[in-house]
Amino acid sequence: MNDKRVLTIQDISCVGQCSLTVALPIISACGLETAILPSAVLSNHTGGFKSWTFRDLTDDMPDIEKKWVEEGIAFDAIYTGYLGSARQIDIVKHIFQTCLKPGGLRIVDPAMADNGKLYTGFDMAFVKEMAKLCESADYILPNITEASLITGIDYRETYDEAYVLEQAKKLAELGPKSVILTGISYEPSTTGVVIYENGKMSYYQHYRLPKGSHGTGDVYASSFTGALMHGKSSYEAAKIAADYTVKCIENTVDDPDHWYGVKFEAVLSELIRALN
Ligand code: PXL
Questions:
Q1: pLDDT tens-digit profile of 60-79?
Q2: What is d(CA 65, CA 96) in angstroms, rounded to the nearest whole number?
Q3: Which of 19, 182, 259 to mutate to test the pocket of ligand 1 (most atoms within 8 A of CB)?
Q4: Does any ligand 1 atom lie closer than 6 A to the CB of residue 227?
Q5: Number of H helices, E strands in the chain
Q6: Taking the model in full, what pTM does it have?
Q7: Which tens digit of pLDDT belongs to each residue from 130-162?
Q8: Is 110 in contact with 145 (CB distance < 8 Å)?
Q9: Which CATH architecture has domain 5-275?
Q10: 234-250 and 268-275 are packed helices; what angle lies between their axes, rounded to 10 degrees?
Q11: Orientation of helix 268-275 relative to helix 20-29, angle to 10°
Q12: Structural domain spans, the chain
């Protein structure tokens, strides 16, 4: 029996298949109790819709934490994604200290940028804070844009292994046990994930679908967390998450109306099969 309890901290985009509407069902489907701490509530995500509402929940977070501390609630892992303000970083760091069981895992997806650009609403002050959160993490899962912003190494659209190794080393110097770099592609027809751990870099390569899809970073980090909490190694968890994310994209790519996210629900059984 797997009675692990995971807390995930990220926004609720009410519509758009990203952040908590992806993390909660995926981690739950992995058989793990999943608690949530919403960082903000948006009508829809900020990646392609014309506009959105944004309710910042920063001020609620310490009160929620306080109640959990009073109740003696603690988690086996805390996985963070999109955060609603730079101020939330210190709060999240505090929650790592007060609400994690001894030996519990801190998984940080510094969800703030893609394709060479920061998401709307973020600035370099936020990046600086996010780098500090990475210092407190056991696992970090940046894409190459987020890595560049955190390390200060120039962002490149095309690169070689030496460039990726330099990024990974610099990220590891911040302190996390493992650096998982997502969307690492050395040639147009393939992509993959780099795992840098104990000074060693490994690569899981898979084929690349012609179209990138929104929300896949959240699908990836959620399924990685689920696999890790099933006792998989970083490499195995990175591979399981990559295979599942590809399945989600394959299940969506032929539907032109479904531009805002991936249809992860119908292929959840594939993820569960990979875990068992
Ligand atoms: O998937 C990352 C993400 C999460 N939450 C919100 C977003 C995005 C990406 O654009 O806008 C609100």
A1: 999 999 999 999 999 999 99
A2: 10
A3: 19
A4: no
A5: 9, 11
A6: 0.98
A7: 999 999 999 999 999 999 999 999 999 999 999
A8: no
A9: 3-Layer(aba) Sandwich (3.40)
A10: 160
A11: 40
A12: 5-275
